[in-house]
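Posting this for the archive.
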Amino acid sequence: MKEFVMHTQRCPRLIAIMLAVALLSPAALVDRPAQALPWFNRTAFTAPHFYRVWDAANAEVANNRVNRAWTWGPTPWFDYQEFYKQAPHGLRQVQYFDKARMELTNPDTTSGPLGGVTMGLLPVEMVAGRVKLGDGVGPDEYEPRAPAEIPVAGDPGNENPHAPTYASFRSVATTDNGYRDPPKVGQRVGATIAKDGVIGFRQSLADMPGTELVVYERVTGHNIPRVFDEFRGASPVPSNVALGLPITDPYWVVAHVGTQGVQPGRDLDVLVQIFERAVLTYTPANPPEFQVEMGNVGQHYFQWRYPQLGGLGQPWQVPVPPYYNFEGILFASRQAGPQFALHKLDMDIGVLQRLDPPATDGDDSTAPYSLLRSWGLDQDEVFGASTRFTPDRQKRQIVRQRYTYAPSPRPSDALVRVIESNADDHHPAVSPDGKKLIFASDRDGNMDLYLINLGDDAQTPRRAVPTQLTQTQGCAVEFPSWLPDGSGIVYASDCQDRNWEIYVAQLDYTQDKLDDLKIDHLISPGARGSVRLTSNNVPDRSPRVSPNGQQIAFERDRQIFIMGIDGSTPQQLTTKQSNEGPTWSATGDQLAFSSDRDGDWELYLMSIRSPGATQLTHNIVDDRFPVWAQ
């Protein structure tokens, strides 16, 4: 990568200080720094701060001036707004690389050795089993979880099942336990560690060149061998910010290395030492320039942090996410009976398939609303609402189902309920990282928006108490759609002027644990944190944010429109009969929607750049509520 390529769209990170909100235009409130977004142009740098840090360390490698391993990795592959207590709105910009996660807690800060950028203590979190949530050390500053059962070196776990993991080092690592190793300067490293944490010794490994211990780090109490000390000294980035201090002594592990597709790898002896911010590996069997490398901590941490509902896959291994080539549209149809059921249309081969199991009652009805996208071929999740879980079949409950692509797209899990409830819950919008769900509910007597953390167990309904996002009376708030970086939502409400209008809202978090999710303030229409984007004497509903975060598709008085993310330049795309439920393609250049123009509701497809629509379904029953890429 020889030049800085950064996405130029403006992301609606609403200005925190809104003292004069009534006097500011929507455009003023969404004028924020350019952002790259996950799943769209995902190898772009989300902030110039990140590019400068990457370029300083990797420019010579990228331009083939030196032959050595990458410092951070060849390119970023995921960015998001992750919760952190000290960040504005409780969210900080992060970007993931193979070997690290770069963090920008405050975009206005340029101090520090990396110009405001920090590298997280990812190995510490994975060994200790604690996700860091803030600068402090109290229980409110982290969330406990199991230490990472991910190999510290070599191939991924499914190809490297016997290698030691981060969890294997817990008893010999300095996290918050006061553990220290005695000084051993002058000795050589022959100590081995197995996956179960058992320590051994092999003299042949101690005889390897560079294994003599030359430094004892007294702050954390660990010894550093010559090969790693020399690597620290030659690092293009100061070692204190790139690596941090050692939290273990060095140990030899046996790791399976080099598996490529159907090509088998081999078991190799690898010297490993875990530091606060990185893992260093020494593989004597490698060519000299690549014997000492930084481990793939960014990849490892991403898998550990985002396991929800099967995980997000491995974006560093997949050049194009599978759904980019997946022409399937999910929708509700009456083709299987009098009630709506979940179906999928594969446009490539013209196959229509029912996804939810047969109805248990004649009044069962199921419709999709959002999709959790993954780079894995069998991990996408559809979220919707169904009446099959309530005795009277009058109230909707939130449901989810996983489906797989290979050998052909098909459901792989039963339709299951997400959260236990006696209320009417619907319009579930899953966050792009798979961790959260916003939905509409009348559980407090009025239709408002609520937020829950999903948790890891997708088969058991959650009993969480949802966090209320809006609080209204005598009106409704519905149709949530996430901003692609997770910083906020777009939604529709009829609470102002008793007419449906579209709003954008920044979410301000004060805590984000599985069962302790707090928002600083309600985002009700007209309240702090929400900005009205439309103002008409006709209803505007069903907003959907485009994959690149630049536009909103919506229905206005039963016609399909698009507008800028700040509410600017609305453009009408349809003129015939009634149209509803626009949903974006993954590439953001097409919309699917439903229309009754042929006498019943059918699915249609159109480009956002040219007039006209193509009919996708042809039958005498209703096909409605399409979901494509969000």
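The chain has four domains: 21-305, 309-417, 423-532, 541-630. Helices lie at 26-29, 48-62, 122-128, 203-206, 226-234, 239-242, 297-305.
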